[in-house]
Amino acid sequence: MKNFDSYFKSAFTVDNVIFGFDESDLKILLIKRQEDPYIDHWALPGYFVLPDEDLNTAARRVLKQLAGLDNVYLEQVKSFGAVDRHPFGRVITVAYYSLVKIDNFNPQPDNDVAKEVRWFSVSDVSNLNLAFDHEEMVDVCFETLKHQVRVRPIGFELLPPKFTLTELQHLYEAILETDLDKRNFRKKILSMNLLIDLDEMQAGVAHRPAKLYQFDYDKYQEFLEEGFSFEVKESKRKERQAVS
C-alpha cells in the first residue's frame, strides 16, 4: 500500500485583503505582527486554518480575532502556494478580499498575533516591506477589484445614503487609480438608471451646491446579479500625461 504521509505535512492559512474607502482615498487594513516569523512587520490579517474548520469559516474567524472586523462579506480570490513562501515550512494560503466603508468599523486586535491594526493608503503598500508574499496578494486582489468595478456596481455600502455624482466619481477614481472624464462619467452613470434623483441640493457647503442622489436598490440588485460593462474615458489631463 502506498505511503501518503508526505502529502499530509503541509499547513493551510487564510489571508484577508480588506480594502476600505473613506470618501477620498482607497486604503488597506494591515496588522503589525508580534510573533515570528516577521515579528514587527506589517502584514495582512491572516493565520492558520484549524483542523476542524472550513476555509470560509477560518477567514471570518481570523479577521475577527486579528483585526476585530465582523460581518464582512469575503470573496475568495486565489491560492498562493510557492514552496518557500513561509520560512517555517510548506504553507499554502487562500486569499480573500472585501471592500468596506472605513467609518463602519473600529479595528481592534484580540489575539497574540497582532499588536496593532491600522489602515494604510494602497499607494503606500510598496514602501512597507510586508511580511511573506503579502504584497503580491495585495496586487492580485487590487487587480481583481479593478476588474469587478467595471462589471458590478459599487458604492451602495461605501457612500452616504445621499451623495453627489462627484463623490461617486471619486470612489471609482480611487479604485481605478485614474482621473475620469467628468462629462463622460456622468453621462454613463445616469444612462444606467441606477440612481434616483432626490431633487435636493447639498446644504452648508462653501462651494456651489450639487444635486443629491441615492441608489435605486432594486436596480442595484439587478446589476449585482446580471453585471454590466462600465468603461469611461480618462480625463483629458490624464491622457495628456500618458502621451508626454
Describe the protein's architecture and organization.
The chain is an alpha+beta fold. The chain has two domains: 140 residues, Alpha-Beta Complex (Nucleoside Triphosphate Pyrophosphohydrolase); 90 residues, Winged helix-like DNA-binding domain superfamily/Winged helix DNA-binding domain (Arc Repressor Mutant, subunit A, Orthogonal Bundle), CATH 1.10.10. Helix content is 29%, strand content 25%. Strands 1, 2, 3, 4, 5, 6 and 7 form a seven-stranded mixed sheet that branches. It has a two-stranded antiparallel ribbon with strand order 8-9. Strand 1 and strand 2 form a beta hairpin. It is elongated, with a radius of gyration of 21 Å. The model has no long low-confidence stretch (mean pLDDT 91).
SSE topology sketch:
Elements: E1 11-21, E2 26-33, E3 42-43, E4 46-48, H1 55-67, E5 75-80, E6 91-101, E7 114-121, H2 134-151, H3 165-176, H4 182-191, E8 195-201, E9 211-215, H5 217-226, H6 236-243
Parallel strand pairs: 1-6
Antiparallel strand pairs: 1-2, 1-4, 2-3, 2-7, 5-6, 8-9
Can you count the beta strands? 9
The CATH topology annotation of the largest domain reads as: Nucleoside Triphosphate Pyrophosphohydrolase
The overall pLDDT average reads 91
Biggest pleated-sheet summary = 7 strands, mixed
Strand content: 25-35%
Number of domains: 2
Structural class category: alpha+beta
**Tally of separate helices:** 6
Which CATH architecture of the largest domain is right? Alpha-Beta Complex
What is the first-to-last residue Cα distance? Answer: 67 Å
- Helix-strand pattern, N to C? EEEEHEEEHHHEEHH
Per CATH, the class of the largest domain reads Alpha Beta
Determine the CATH superfamily of the largest domain: Nucleoside Triphosphate Pyrophosphohydrolase
Spans of at least 5 consecutive residues whose pLDDT stays below 50 are: none
User: What gyration radius follows from the Cα positions, in whole Å?
Assistant: 21 Å
Fraction in helix: 25-40%
Shape: elongated
